[in-house]
Predict the 3D structure of the following.
Amino acid sequence: MKHGIIVGAIIAVVSAAMILWMRTIQWMPVQAAAEARPIDWLFGLHIDVITFLYVLVNGILLYSIFVFRRKKGEEDAVGANLHGNTKLEIAWTVIPLITVLFFAYLGTLVLNDISAAAADEMDVNVRARQWSWSFEYPEAGVKSTELYLPAGRKVKLTMTSEDVIHSFWVPEFRVKMDTVPGITTTLRITPSEEGTYKVRCAELCGTAHAAMLGTIRVVSPEEFEQWLQGKQAPTSPADLSEEELVTLGASTAEAAGCLACHSVDGSKSVGPTWKGLFGSERTLADGSTVVADEDYIRESILNPKAKTVAGFPDIMPPTYGDTLSELDVEALIAYIRSLK
Amino acid sequence: MKIGRILLGLIIGAAAGAALYVVMRLILGMPAMSANPWPMIALMAATGVIGLMLGIEPSLGLARALAGMVLGFAVGLLLVYGIRLLLGMDPAWSPEPAWVTGALLGTIGFLLGVGVVTDWLKWTWGEETPLQDGPPKGKPAWVRYFGPDQNHKVIGVQYTVTGILLLGTAGSFAMIFRTELSKAGIDFLPADLFNTFISIHGIVMIASILLGVGGLMNYLVPLMLGARDMAFPRLNSFGFWVAVPGAILIVLALFFGGWDTGWTGYAPLSVRGPLGIDFFMLGVFIFGFSSIVGAVNLITTVVGMRAPGMSMFRMPIFVWASLATSLIQLTGTQLIALSFLMVVLERIFNMGFFDPASGGKVLLFQHLFWFYSHPAVYIFILPGLGIISELLPVFARKPLFGYKWIALSSMAIAIIGFLVWAHHMFTSGMSESLRVPFMYSTMLVAVPTGVKFFSWLGTMWRGKLTFPTPMLFVLTSIAVFLIGGLTGPPLATVPTDLHLHDSYYVVGHFHATMFGGFVFPFFAALYFWFPKITGRMYNERLGKVHWLLQTVGFYTMSLFMMRAGLLGMRRRIVDYDPALGVEGYQTVVTWAGWIIFISVTIGVINLAWSAYRGKVAEPNPWGSRSPEWQIPSPVPEHNYEEPFEVVGDPYDYGVPGSVYVKIEPEPASG
């Protein structure tokens, strides 16, 4: 009994202190979506209980190690002849059972909360492929390689994949959902903080999985409308200077996922490097050669199977014609041209 | 003269490999030599080693098995080539079906070569064969460990040593990619190789754990039950040897393009990848036979071969854990084998099981896969938890607290474990109505697991604790498995899992359950029963160094893995975004990983060295009541001269003078 009181007191004090300490730790990235708040709250509650149980078990363990160790002169001594205690066993069956069921109940509530539809939610279609993301705003008829979202409005992502399983995860939004070939999956998010984030593919999807990142820009509703209108009335490549085109091309290359497979510094990757590509003579898989001019690069973006460079696998998705605008393509060509 | 024979074997073997290579290429219509010299060198190395082994001892089962495997491969390649040629298919040489057939026939060649099916074949011809009795006559005693021996203790050692070899293999791959990950950016490991290495690390570790589990159960259960051997000694031998070609095929995948799917092999990525995927999946398929026949054998032994007086609730607690484990193995393994076989069939014959491009269902694979692969983690941990329960009373000098509760909690985990698989699929896009029920069922696993923890604490409470190396490993097992267990509920809760799934948090959680539930208890068991197996003591000081380094290294590694995951570090990526603020944690994890690697190396060296040079052990150094400690070490060929009689409870350490088993007649020496 004496031991029980001492260890109980130690555990009460230490676990209270540890719970308070744990609460000061910023476990997660910034909360950039409304869904993050209930999820972080639930996670914090988990941490409280985990911390208590951690101290409870380790407290009794360490107390036993120090207090109940065999001391000098006790070589043949044996421990107390305790075989068990049915009341205790029932207690530590029932109390954990109630605890975990309570957490499952809370989990259900939070899940219903964050996956509920909203009347004014905006639809966005997400397509994933090895190894890039693209987005479509069906109401506005706009396609984009970057996901622009207005802050404060719930968006319903309807997602699919063109090849293998990928997974849409923005750590700052907390939620993730696989994109699965053959079916569509849904995910609802309500971005709350303006800023630039990355969607990170969370399901191993082959060679360049690590580099499968997409850009998300959460902007004010006004800025979003502006961007949408700009997309609806696209700028002609002729309106931009060469320098502006190169800048645009560099950001398109990142947003469209080109850089997952093509390096810009001459290093070896899944696909040919872009450095020094423009104007060079390319040896194709069938042994013929071709000079890499504007037309060749345009064709290689829109119809990559037409001419495959020798020594590289024929795996580039043939779908960029659907996801890139004419301006995007011209900007990419200008960017590649600039990489001497 | 011996040296001359060994060298001759090596040369003849290598020459035979070269000849086989050239002949095969000519038959298959290729130029005799290829531009890439490595396949020929690899084959010559393999056949050279076979020749060398045959030179050492011509009857060596392993050498014959490997030779049979090489021949099986050759026959398989030629068979597919011949069939395609006859059918007029173009081209006649198609690598994928040829190598898959080669792998299957290679496995059969291996089993025929090693001789584990010889008795059964003879029976079908009406010839009777006696059960093997003792080491093979007229040969060195060590030969039995490299051939089809039928003694459960030899098989137990075979399992365990092979398990440790695979542990080292898988751990070495981990060290390579862990080093790559210590800094952001791709430093030396290309993405495809990284993906292959994490995949092979995962599956070889699993194979290693299954072999370790098989080793413990095979060695200990018959001894604990008072049985002369396992129920089916020939099947037991088959169970071990069929695992070996399985493991070989998995490692061979490295030389056939590797594979980039992780150990989970999710379709449709696995339907598209390189030839290595076939080797990986066939390897697992064949390995599965080992689990299934091992489980049949163990269940039969436990049910039917207990000593007089040993009721179910008087069995040593490890036997309960083994029984629960075997029930899972017997019922679950088929599903992973089936899912992998379906992928191989889809790859070769374009059967549209999983790839929607040919009419398949993507999620079907995940359901089939996890129906086994979730319960599989209980296969890995239940024996380890059984070891904890088995050893604690010995070192606390106290009865096991709540024996029946612990015994039945193992069964409860085994049953609940089959109802929770879809918690791996909360973000998979499966029907949303499935998520909540699987959240509830998954939470239930915490209850019997909690019973075990509290019962362990109850066992230590008011005991007289001593701390030799096995006890230290037991205590760390509890502390580490606690981390693994407590970090589970946030993954089981759907909303928090939406963030945590596929992140490094999962990696940290999983490694904590595996180290706490298997690796630490496995080493506790190795140190504890080492004197029983070898008759010698390990080095206590080195054992404690091993324990300290592994404990510190692992604690650090798992906590920092989980920390990185919370911040957005994804699992299975060769490069990460330093903007997440995880690079420092990654560096720490790499260092911690190296500390673990070094500690395990120290442990293995300690055990290997002590097996030859260790101090001769006392018959019962731990003062255990368990029957295997009441007979000489190493254990005689057929365990107990007479079946012992159980007259008491297994863990009455608190009652002076009480005994568990009565062994008659008294052993001659002891």
Summary: The first strand of chain A starts at residue 122 and ends at 129. Residues 237-338 of chain A form a domain with the Cytochrome Bc1 Complex; Chain D, domain 2 fold (CATH 1.10.760.10). Chain A touches chain B through 83 residues (CB under 8 Å).
